[in-house]
Amino acid sequence: MTDQPTAVRLRDVRKTFSRRKAGRKAGRTALDGVSLDVRPGEFLCLLGPSGCGKSTLLNILAGFITADSGEVLVGGRPVTAPGHDRGVLFQTPNLFPWLTTWQNVLYGPKARGDLTPAVRDEAAELLETVGLADARDAYPHELSGGMRHRAAFARVLINHPGVLLMDEPFGALDAITRAGMQRFLLELWQRRRTTIVFVTHDVEEATLLGDRVCVLSAPPGGTKEVLDIDLPRPRSYDDTETLAFVQAKRRIREALER
Ligand SMILES: Nc1ncnc2c1ncn2[C@@H]1O[C@H](COP(=O)(O)OP(=O)(O)OP(=O)(O)O)[C@@H](O)[C@H]1O
Ligand SMILES: [Mg+2]
């Protein structure tokens, strides 16, 4: 036990989804004892095979579903419901199709009755930052995949979440767009130092982005190993060819395969 502050604290988190099978109650255990601390400002990647419970864990942290047992704290408080202190980004950006980029970004502040001139100025600044200043009046269907992701990002960032929860946010993008989004995310994190929990099953992505990688075991998921990624910052895609990067990647792949 240490007194070091944690942004996210998970202790022995368990989750079983119940379902009826041939009239009998059956269950599928998704998480079988996950424990993990994420430090403030840390970029933590959650890595594991398909079905090991990564999305389940993120949904628990987001407050969309509840764990059966265990401790789930964000910013020192138990998670009981979704909240603006946690910004969530999924594989598919869930923008409101009937709202423009500008309206999507201002959705949270508007819902909270917080549409001040300062917030509008910040929205304009954010759209500039994510390269969507010219697309502020466009609707989601008029944007490319990468642009939609950046709009979803801006919509989350305007709420100043203490923790960003990202579930394979670039998984559906082509390689070039994905590399662009990874660069954008690294620059943003470098500037804001928001705590990030980033789900991926891509070893290279985890190595490029993370301070540490938490490897979950094969279904049902539990914490298997937590590895430090001791590569210098700032990192860029060019680093992926260095010997240190390749070695770090190999260590993570070996942990995954153990
Ligand atoms: N709402 C649900 N009802 C029943 N079972 C569920 C539900 N959500 C997830 N599961 C089950 O829990 C397990 C973990 O699912 P989860 O989506 O968390 O895995 P994952 O690690 O995110 O996988 P992937 O990498 O494929 O996205 C799976 O066996 C899945 O079938
Ligand atoms: Mg998933």
From TrEMBL:
SMART domains hit by this protein? AAA
Which keywords appear in this protein's UniProt record, sorted alphabetically? ATP-binding, Nucleotide-binding, Transport
UniProt xrefs under Gene3D superfamilies: P-loop containing nucleotide triphosphate hydrolases
- Which PANTHER family does this entry report, sorted A to Z? ALIPHATIC SULFONATES IMPORT ATP-BINDING PROTEIN SSUB, TAURINE IMPORT ATP-BINDING PROTEIN-RELATED
Organism equals Actinomadura barringtoniae
Q: Which residues form the ABC transporter domain?
A: 8-243
Q: From what superkingdom does this record's organism come?
A: Bacteria
Q: Per its record, how is this protein called by name?
A: ABC transporter ATP-binding protein
Q: Which Pfam families match?
A: ABC_tran
